[in-house]
Amino acid sequence: MTRKLYEISGADADHFLQGLITNDLEKMGDGLLYAAILTPQGKYLADFLLHRRDGTILLDVEAGLAPGLIQRLGMYKLRAHVSIAESDLQVRRGTGKPPEGALADPRHADLGWRLYGNEGGDDGSDWDAIRVAHCIPETGIELTPDTFILEAGFERLNGVNFRKGCYVGQEVTARMKHKTELRKGLTTVAIQGVAPVGSEITAAGKPAGTLYTQAGNQAIAYLRFDRATGPMQAGDVALSWKN
């Protein structure tokens, strides 16, 4: 886990972020808020965690996404009274007893806690096993520039709010929520063996999806639900899905 932390401050910071992110800053309170920023077409650009700390909003993002995200925020900032500065803080995370000052991960209770301070790292938990068990997507693996966040489970992971005002990509996201039934998306499947991440999944010889993170006899897969009703294959590996 390599993360970058940024401090967002200024008189317009709340208003600025509220018009960009998928979640509602007013729901953050003293804890963590999970959110994303999307393209105008409603596709994923970056996901991150936000936390109010010492008069600023701390942004916790995967390091590889950080340059593009900060550039995008700068593009939207225009003349708003907002400052964005890299923080010296680091993030620790774990699933055992939380230390003083730790914050619960808002995506799922089994993801444990995060602590922002002078030390980084984690407690050695099997994060892939936790993610696979609960179908929690990871930046750069299941979450890619082609991702629609509802197909990735953001509603279940407390990463999107449908009652807040507009944000970039909101129209497409709201339409997927209210006017269509999801026919594709991430889910957990049973797997007999191991296949490379990104392997094509087939059912009755037809493309049915893509295989991602695997742990034990389970994996996260992106499926076409209408084709995932029987036995499936990823290379020589057998898969199955229970709706």
Explained architecture:
The chain has helices spanning 13-18, 66-77, 127-134, 170-178, and strands spanning 3-9, 32-38, 44-53, 56-62, 83-86, 90-94, 103-104, 113-117, 121-122, 184-192, 200-203, 206-215, 218-224, 232-234, 237-240. The protein is α+β, with helices and mostly antiparallel strands and 243 residues long. The protein has 2 domains: 3-178, Probable tRNA modification gtpase trme, domain 1 (Gyrase A, domain 2, 2-Layer Sandwich), CATH 3.30.1360; 184-240, no CATH class. The strands form 3 sheets. Strands 11-12-13-10-15-14 form a 6-stranded antiparallel sheet.
Any chance you could write out the topology, listing elements then pairs?
Blueprint: E1 3-9, H1 13-18, E2 32-38, E3 44-53, E4 56-62, H2 66-77, E5 83-86, E6 90-94, E7 103-104, E8 113-117, E9 121-122, H3 127-134, H4 170-178, E10 184-192, E11 200-203, E12 206-215, E13 218-224, E14 232-234, E15 237-240
Short description:
The protein is of the alpha+beta class. The chain has two domains: 3-178, 2-Layer Sandwich (Gyrase A, domain 2); 184-240, no CATH class.
How many domains?
2
Structural class: alpha+beta
Radius of gyration using CA atoms only: 19 Å
Distance between the termini: 31 Å
Helix run count: 4
| CATH uppermost class of the largest domain | Alpha Beta
Give the proportion of residues in helices.
10-25%
CATH architecture of the largest domain: 2-Layer Sandwich
Number of strands: 15
For the record, what is the CATH homologous superfamily label of the largest domain?
Probable tRNA modification gtpase trme, domain 1
Roughly what fraction of the amino acids lie in strands?
A: 35-45%
